[in-house]
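Annex B.
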Amino acid sequence: MRRREESGRARVPEERRGLLAQLRNPPGGRNARIMLLALAVDRTGSGLWAASSVLYLTFVTRLSAQQIGVLLGVAGVAGIAGSPLAGRLAGRFPVRPLLIGCHLLRLVTLGLVLVCTGFDALLPVVAVTYLGDRAAKTLEMLFATRTAGERRAAYQALSRSAANAGYGVGAGIAAIGLAVGTTGAYRVLILGNALSFVVAAVLVWRTTEPAEGVVEAARAAGAVPGGQVVDGQVADGPESGRPAGPWRDRGYLRFVLLDIPMNLDDSVLAVGLPLWLVNRTSAPHALVPAFLVINTVLVVVLQLGVSRRAEGPRRATRAVLLYGVLMFVCCGFLAVATRGGAWAAGAVLLAAALLVTLAELMRSVSSWELAVLLAPQDARAAYLGVAGMAQSIQKSAGPPLLTGVVMAAGPVGWLALGAVVAGLAVVQRRACAHRLGIGPSRKESAALVIG
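MFS transporter: predicted structure tokens.
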């Protein structure tokens, strides 16, 4: 009897295992495990670039602050085109060689960064680098969607944990090079980023091309009629009369448009919190690094648990509502942070950092899950490529929106932003539920619990 009880306790459901256990055996098996390693290596290089690129451009290539701003701004705009381009290509060619090509493209452009010294030469080189970077991210998620299948939310959580760990390692290595501060040290950091692309390309080469999902295969055999909703997912076929592609699908474009403000947590964390602390509160400036620490630790620790509560159409749409609530409360905390003493303001801002991180956790899973569920499966690659534009657009438009409009208006600006995001979250939830055929359910109206 005891043996049966012990063996029963030993059988832990796959989705309930811990982070390390799931990293060793992720959804998708060997392919997913190699891809997660490739992703971590790639993001380690990205951490090197993020920490050193501005200083490299300043002290090695001797660009002015205005030139660097234009350079990175144009590169950000170029990156917006990377997602739909990758999606379109992935609908016609295998994902695996395309992803290897993106890694090798960035290897070449990083090599050119080391030899180009003028602004005119660096502008197209850095722009192509950012385009390849965004395309690679979209292809990684397309690979994951095909490999992990119905457990794509769990894979997304593991990929974010791996990515955050990679960023942290890259930033830590960069700190050593920046402490040295010589031209040679800066060049070594750029070379380290380039090396990460080589390693990532080799790892992707070791995978096999993921097969399409069961529903796609069933449709090809005529088992799934077009235009139906299968398990809460749009299963349109070409004969269903739906728009020919994502750019003519008004419902999907509305989802992508509303998903842009659903990504504002990124700019609030990276731009809004630090600048608000420094310019409008009496909180100690030493708290600024704590925002990133809180975010990194919570994402690694909680992302997997959150993903289990955002899988499937009903949970994903409910997570959108929770995102709006969390962002509204976060913005409210930022609005009141201007009152009180240094320690009170610091405590309020730390609470805001916690809330915006929880919002990020909800968004990171629900946004991609809904992008997949809302896309007709026979054109998923092209649709997901368009969906990937939301994050790129937010990265370009979010910072100037916060600095030029929200923060310029003071505390009222934060309250207005929170109200707008919360309202748009309600609109997004209703639109997604309507497209997926999800009716209201009192049973599932309880708030998501993180654990």
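The longest strand covers residues 228-230. The CA atoms of residues 157 and 290 lie 22 Å apart. Further annotation is deferred to the next reporting cycle.
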